[in-house]
Specification:
The complex is a heterodimer of chains A (250) and B (254).
Chain A (H helix, E strand, L loop, with lengths): L1 H24 L11 H14 L1 H33 L1 H14 L8 H8 L4 H24 L3 H9 L4 H38 L5 H10 L3 H34 L1
Helix pairs in contact in A: 2-10, 3-4, 3-6, 3-8, 3-9, 5-6, 6-8, 7-8, 8-9, 8-10, 9-10
Chain B lengths: L17 E9 L6 E6 L3 E5 L6 H9 L5 E6 L2 E2 L10 E4 L11 H11 L5 H10 L15 H14 L4 E5 L7 H18 L2 E6 L2 H7 L2 E6 L2 E7 L7 H15 L8
Parallel strand pairs in B: 3-8, 3-9, 6-7, 7-8
Antiparallel strand pairs in B: 1-2, 1-4, 4-5, 9-10
Classes of the chains: A mainly alpha (250), B alpha/beta (254).
């Protein structure tokens, strides 16, 4: 059954690749505009062998990991504080409500002036992009916990700190992981945008260079890498969530 | 807290030391509530929905604020958190920890108090006849099983006082009768003082030594459970409650 399901998900991809290869080989469009899949794979091999892809990928990955880790940690911590302390929630909610709707890239010009055009710029943008969704997902997760469950822990003798670590956080995990899962993909989108606009290294920068040199095959390689990374991050967090909660959520 | 015996005729007798005493307790729902519950006694608070029964129970447990005084064994409870009042609380929705299995739910109170859990947990699971469910999670339990697990968890910390909020609300009649019998047996065996909140007069009669009738935040009367059904009060209160609910704009009409 699982083999059948696996085949069901891989067959459409193989179909698209075959159609792509055949259409490109019909020479309806010049190869430099629409290269066949096999040519793209050869290009990918060359980029990997020369280290170009690796250097740019590692640069982007480092920015994503730094910004995403810091933004998520800050968002979750602030979310816990605001979810548990109503006074904090009431005080900070109006400020965050004003900041949250600003598109992440809207911060770019301001950050270019404040932090300069360097590695910190995409990290800061990813920080902002990850912070707000994790903040609100954590608050929603905590607010959604049955108050009686928390009161039950209290009557049984648990301190606030114990309630936080043994009841609140485990029960907020599904919401937190939903935020992590969605925002991991978003972090990759933001880093590419930042690199395309301002940074000379990374997958986004490679994309921009390829565009100016009309290297469609390199552009497609970059897009494939991006797609795989977004998928990998999403699956990684889905796996983490399942591991942590499948016993009690089913 | 030594057991000192119960007043036999249902009256508050000054010769007996009350385990729980509420004096002029008032908050957003309770109005000037005075009530004494004696050592080892089971007291039911009976009344219609919205009478303030749950609020009174939460007040006794120290979960919500109040004016007036609450005494446990003549000791004022003001400023003492619910975790140090020696109460076991069975919530209306049972409030089991969904992320913990049955054994961990029952042992939670012992673990957070850094007491040995294993033997005690097994003992309670046996007492409540849920030993075989030890490794199951709450989502995989029936209503009656959840009830037993919640009661085991409540008893785990050996509370002196048991507070039960509509404990059999969601159960079918047969399970309910069975659990009432078992709970009564356990309460008597362990000599725990118990306050039970219910809107079901049969539950109140079967589980309690005395019944306090509560309506609109006030205690309207206290009587032995034996004379509960023959009391004029219960019939007038039932009639009043239904009459109120039938009025346009009342809670029942909204």
């Amino acid at each position: 059954m699982s083999r059948f399901k696996g085949a069901q998900s891989i067959l459409p991809i193989i179909g698209v690749v075959v159609i792509w290869e055949v259409v490109a080989r019909l020479d309806l469009v010049p190869a430099y505009m629409f290269p066949p899949f096999s040519m793209v794979m050869v290009k990918m091999y060359h980029l990997m062998a020369s280290g170009v892809l690796e250097d740019n990928f590692v640069a982007s990955l480092a920015r994503v990991l730094a910004g995403f880790a810091l933004g998520s940690a800050a968002g979750i911590s602030m979310g816990i504080l605001m979810g548990c302390k109503e006074t904090m929630n009431r005080s900070l909610h109006p400020i965050f409500s004003l900041l949250y709707p600003i598109p992440v890239l809207g911060w770019a010009p301001l950050l270019m002036i404040w932090v300069g055009i360097n590695d910190l710029l995409p990290v800061m943008l990813i920080f902002i992009c990850s912070f707000f969704p994790l903040l609100y997902n954590t608050i929603t997760g905590i607010k959604g916990i049955d108050r009686d469950v928390i009161q039950a822990a209290r009557v049984l003798g648990a301190s606030d700190k114990t309630i936080l670590t043994t009841v609140i956080l485990p029960l907020a995990v599904p919401n937190i992981f939903t935020g992590l899962r969605l925002e991991a993909g978003m972090a990759w989108r933001v880093v590419i945008a930042a690199e395309m606009v301002a940074i000379p290294t990374g997958i986004g920068a490679l994309l921009m260079r390829s565009e100016s040199l009309l290297q469609v095959d390199v552009i497609i390689v970059c897009l494939i890498v991006l797609s795989l990374m977004c998928l990998l991050f999403e699956r990684m967090f889905r796996y983490g969530e399942t591991r942590l909660t499948y016993k009690w959520r089913g | 807290m030594g057991r000192q015996g119960l007043p036999t005729n249902g009256e508050d007798k000054e010769d007996f030391m009350p385990t729980i005493e509420l004096r002029r307790v008032t908050n957003f729902i309770c109005q000037d509530v005075n009530l004494k519950i004696f050592d080892g006694e089971a007291m039911a608070i009976w009344g219609p929905t919205g009478a303030g029964k749950t609020t009174l129970l939460n007040t006794t447990a120290g979960l919500i604020g109040y004016q007036g005084e609450v005494f446990f064994d003549d000791k004022a409870m003001e400023g003492i958190p619910s975790s140090r009042r020696g109460v076991g609380f069975l919530f209306q929705n049972l409030a089991l920890f969904p992320h913990l299995d049955v054994a961990s739910n029952v042992g939670y109170g012992l673990r957070v108090r850094k007491e040995r859990a294993n033997g005690r947990v097994d003992e309670l699971l046996r007492l409540m006849k849920v030993e075989h469910l030890k490794h199951r999670y709450p989502k995989n339990l029936s209503g009656g099983e959840k009830q037993r697990v919640a009661l085991a968890r409540t008893l785990a910390t050996s509370p002196n006082i048991l507070l039960l909020d509509e404990p059999f609300n969601s159960l079918d009649n047969q399970t309910c009768r069975h659990l009432i019998f078992e709970l009564r047996h356990i309460q008597r065996r362990l000599g725990i003082t118990m306050i039970l909140v219910t809107h079901n007069p049969v539950e109140a009669k079967d589980l309690a030594d005395r019944v306090a009738i509560m309506d609109k935040g006030r205690i309207k009367g206290v009587m032995p459970s034996g004379s509960f059904f023959s009391s004029k009060d219960i019939h007038s209160h039932i009639n009043d409650s239904y009459h109120d609910l039938a009025q346009p704009g009342s809670r029942g009409q909204r």
